[in-house]
Amino acid sequence: MNNLFPNVQWETIWAATSETLYMTGMAVVATFVLGLILGLLLFLTSKGNIWENKLANTFISAFVNIFRSIPFIILIILLIPFTKFVVGTILGADAALPALIIGAAPFYARMVEIALREIDKGVIEAAKAMGATTATIIWKVLIPESLPALISGITVTAIALVGYTAMAGVVGAGGLGNLAYLEGFQSNHNDVTFVATVLILVIVFIIQFIGDFVTSKIDKR
Amino acid sequence: MITLSNVTKIYKAASGNVTAVDNVNLHVAEGEIFGIIGYSGAGKSSLLRLLNGLEKPTSGEVIVHGKDMGKISGKELRQARQQIGMIFQHFNLLWSRTVRENIAFPLEIAGVPKEERMKRVDELIQLVGLEGRENAYPSQLSGGQKQRVGIARALANHPKVLLCDEATSALDPQTTDSILDLLVDINERLGLTIVLITHEMHVIRKICDRVAVMENGKIVEMGEVLHVFRKPEQPITKRFVQQVTEPEETKEAMTHLLDQYPNGKLVQLTFVGDSTEQPLITQLIRQFDLTVNILQGKISQTHHGSYGVLFIHMDGSDEDIERALAFIRQQQVEVEVMTNE
User: Fold this and answer.
1) pLDDT value at position B262?
2) What is the mean pLDDT of the segment spanning B281-286?
3) pTM of the model
4) What is the CA B2 to chain-centroid distance, rounded?
5) Which residues of B touch A220 (CB under 8 A)?
6) How far is B287 from B283, CA to CA, in rounded Å?
7) Which residues of A touch B106 (CB under 8 A)?
């Protein structure tokens, strides 16, 4: 093994992998919650829905579009003052989280909105006709009825987030991206870059597998 | 139970205002099965949604079970809606819930405790005949079974009124009949008031006590089903009645026969109630010097008695034919002489 990868220090690799997993995991959870809220707001304020409100819808939509359009690497730099204020530092895995979440949540919000639009309007009407409150409609109709699409959406977002963590790594967030760039590319240790890449691929494959599995399990259509 | 006074519903659209419901007045008595028939776009769907406040009237008053559905909102409206069940053309079940969970949904909304909920769901499953399918998901059910779940769900909170939005339009004829039988059964057993909208006269014929015919947002004709069948006044009503009494091919056959029999008269006889049981044709042949040829006949059963249509050809002297027609009219049978138009 050591002959094959002379420059690879497995402890460092393991530490970097756990950093990547940590960043991805935290960001996915926060993105799911934030994206779900934003997506619900986008859906509910749109035309013909419960909280129809053109002004609010335009505002949220603009917010989502702006943050979705900024390239991630630029977003990290733009968010440096904000990150410093919230986390207290701009280095390390935690410092990457604000940018990861703010970059991914709007992206996921659009997917949530699309998922909610796919729900049969008749089902929402039926719930209203039964005397359901808006909260009941959200928790017992909108979310369960769109869950497979919400899950496959968060799977796609999680995979994008793994990519983002690698980018964040380059600017000092740690993780496999950081390792591949500093120890691999800049020190000209191709074996380190190779191992880091393979590990990222493995993470992506596992996320996709879990996402597909859960989606097919909960989809009773 | 339900009273609509001068109800108008106007939708504002970019291309101009659309009057979906135009100054409608109607009253539905408790325990009645009231049908509203019309082609799509006639406004019947909007009218039905005014009854549970899914749509608000632009003007006029909608009183259901003592509540003004156009005025109330918030909690009062939600509670009023729990007293009004609704079933839909496309069933609108939650695919993510089993039969049992779907039926429990309105009970969850009403805040019924879990134990009671389960008991009520079992009762309802029995009522609609879905024993053994409790844990199936909607995707595993047939159309008729899905509508049974819809009905059970609509009845969960012991409503006083059931609204049916084209409830059988997506079902095959046999399943339609079994669902209609179930509705009549529920109406009789629970004393439920049912308001249904449809474009199929078959549904009206089979279960309704009274019918309103809608066209362009207005009710153009309203009355007892049997009466409307016997004496439809508006052209649209006649067309709907023909859906049941005359199969499509009858018209073609009639034009053909009119050409074939230049002499004599082609007559449509309409029997209602007891008159369907008289030996009219025998009497005609015995009392008048006529040849009578039966071309086509059909008896339909309505909720309030039978209703028959008979097409005959009579040949003889003009005088005899006139006397025969007068005789038939005396027997409380509607007569219409067919001409080639």
Assistant:
1) 76
2) 86
3) 0.86
4) 17
5) 95-96, 137-139
6) 6
7) 130-131
